[in-house]
Automatic annotation (TrEMBL):
It comes from the Bacteria. Its cofactor is NAD(+). PROSITE patterns: GLYCOSYL_HYDROL_F4. Binds 1 NAD(+) per subunit. It holds the Pfam family Glyco_hydro_4C. This is 6-phospho-alpha-glucosidase. Belongs to the glycosyl hydrolase 4 family.
Length: 466
């Protein structure tokens, strides 16, 4: 049996423990020989690394596990690189969220001005990282889910145009499927999605039952429209204990009621309801503050406790118990049956499993348009249903999008394309255009003011735009 070597880049991320545990659960279907976690900041991942040693010793003995800040150690002899870096860290995420508020505009991790600011930091770091991985493991699969993924995908497409093994992917569509499929008693593994758009700006156009070939999306939309209160309640229960995503999904349902012919990505809210989104945000305590005090501190406590105990098996952190408490049994994980709600990473493992088995399962990933949607720019990096196998990503044809979606997408793509031009050319004019054309920014003077503020806080993370 072939066994694989994985590196997780951005080892210090709060998502890493989930990811590592999922690798342990998926050992039957995604057998591993080596797992390395890599972070450019040694200190940031030390705790997670120490916890990881215990985890793998207790649950996946024959895997060689290590953590490092050394590129060669991290990237040599690797089959899969899972990349989840956050250029500038959570502190600059906070600035991305807060600066736009000074100008009465939404500040968000990946949408609008905040997303553009983050893109400027992320693109050069991603290009460097891919170059480094390629230097040591030229044939590895690089699965990127670092944000803002749409902008990163546009940039990596230009720099590595012939590299079939770089795949940009996002978990949000899987979370949306997991949220609405229960309305028709289905799980994600029961359906094949049809979806089109840019990352964080797309729509499901079908959810096709694998057994019957029937599209269940119309039925889901009907239920949303005709039994709204029941759906509200169900979503509420699903996201109990997660205020942010709970209220996001309530708003998401409202959005479906306004446009009841497709199932939008939750991130469409920022573009279609900027006033409502703006009214929800507390400038002094934005999402990054919630993440630091919530997930950030929980993960730290979790790792601390396990390190102190020196073991997980037969403790309160025993994975069996931990998982059963969440109502999930993944001891029989098999390809495309990982419908594992509490964990961030199943979509990545599903992708990897489809690759190694060459099983051509459908996953939503980002790929260059090239006629998939003939009435959109051919260079656009669409997030789309693709068959995934050893050869790589093979997109399914979509056909034309409607005028409303076409207008929104082309506007956003112009902003993203101008931004990537601006980064590569260090061109201030294009930077200003990228901000101004963005649907959430709109005004030239506001764009100039925000850019001035962003330049101050981003320091060397931003090039010197001329
Ligand atoms: C979803 C998106 C990610 C994004 C994350 C933010 O998972 O797909 O791209 O980074 O949400 O979540 P957070 O809990 O950090 O605000
Ligand atoms: Mn995402």
């Amino acid at each position: 049996m072939e066994k694989y070597a994985v590196v997780i880049c951005g080892g210090g991320s709060t998502y890493t423990p989930d990811m590592l545990e999922l690798l342990c659960f998926a050992q039957k279907d995604f057998p591993l020989r080596k797992v390395v976690i890599y972070d450019s900041n040694e200190e940031r991942q030390r705790k997670i690394g120490e916890y990881g040693k215990i985890l793998f010793r207790d649950y996946y003995e024959d895997v060689e596990f290590s953590y490092t800040s050394d590129k060669e150690e991290a990237f040599r002899d690797i089959d899969f690189a899972f990349v989840q870096i956050r250029a500038g860290g959570i502190n600059l995420r906070s600035s991305d969220e807060k600066i736009p508020y000074r100008y009465n505009c939404i500040g968000q991790e990946t949408c609008g001005a905040g997303g553009l600011s983050y893109g400027i930091r992320s693109v050069p770091e991603m290009i460097q990282l891919i170059t480094d991985i390629r230097a040591f493991s030229p044939d590895s699969w690089i699965i990127n889910y670092s944000n803002p993924a749409a902008i990163v995908a546009e940039a990596t497409k230009r720099v590595f145009p012939n590299d079939r093994k770089i795949i940009n992917i996002c978990d949000m569509p899987t979370q949306i499927m997991d949220s609405y499929l229960p309305l028709v008693n289905k799980k994600r593994s029961d359906v094949e999605p049809r979806y089109a758009g840019l990352n964080h700006y797309g729509w499901f156009t079908g959810l096709i039952d694998k057994k019957t070939g029937v599209d269940v999306l119309p039925e889901i939309l009907d239920i949303c429209v005709n039994e709204t209160d029941t759906v509200k309640k169900q979503l509420n229960e699903m996201y109990i204990g997660d205020k942010h995503w709970g209220s996001t999904f309530q708003e998401h349902l409202n959005m479906i009621l306004d446009y009841p012919y497709s199932l939008p990505n939750t991130y469409c809210l920022y573009y279609l309801y900027p006033d409502t989104c703006y009214s929800h945000y507390n400038e002094d305590f934005t999402r990054s503050d919630e993440v630091i005090s919530g997930r950030g501190s929980n993960v730290e406590k979790y790792c601390d406790s396990i390190i102190k105990l020196g073991k997980m098996k037969e403790t309160e952190f025993d994975l069996g118990i931990h998982i059963n408490n969440n109502g999930n049994d993944v001891s029989n994980v098999t390809s495309s049956t990982i419908a594992y709600n509490d964990v961030h990473a199943p979509y990545l493992i599903e992708l990897a499993i489809s690759i190694i088995n060459n099983s051509h399962d459908i996953c939503l990933v980002m790929v260059e348009n090239n006629g998939i949607v003939p009435n959109l720019d051919h260079g656009m990096m669409l997030e789309i249903a693709c068959r995934i196998g050893k050869y790589g990503v093979e997109p399914l044809h979509v056909g034309e999008v409607l005028t409303f979606e076409k207008g929104l997408l082309e506007n956003q793509y112009a902003s993203e394309k101008l931004l990537v031009d601006a980064i590569f050319e260090e061109n201030y004019q294009k930077l200003l255009q990228a901000f101004t054309i963005n649907r959430i920014v709109v005004d030239t003077d506001r764009a100039k003011n925000m850019i001035d503020d962003f330049i101050k806080v981003n320091g060397d993370y931003w090039p010197n735009f001329k």
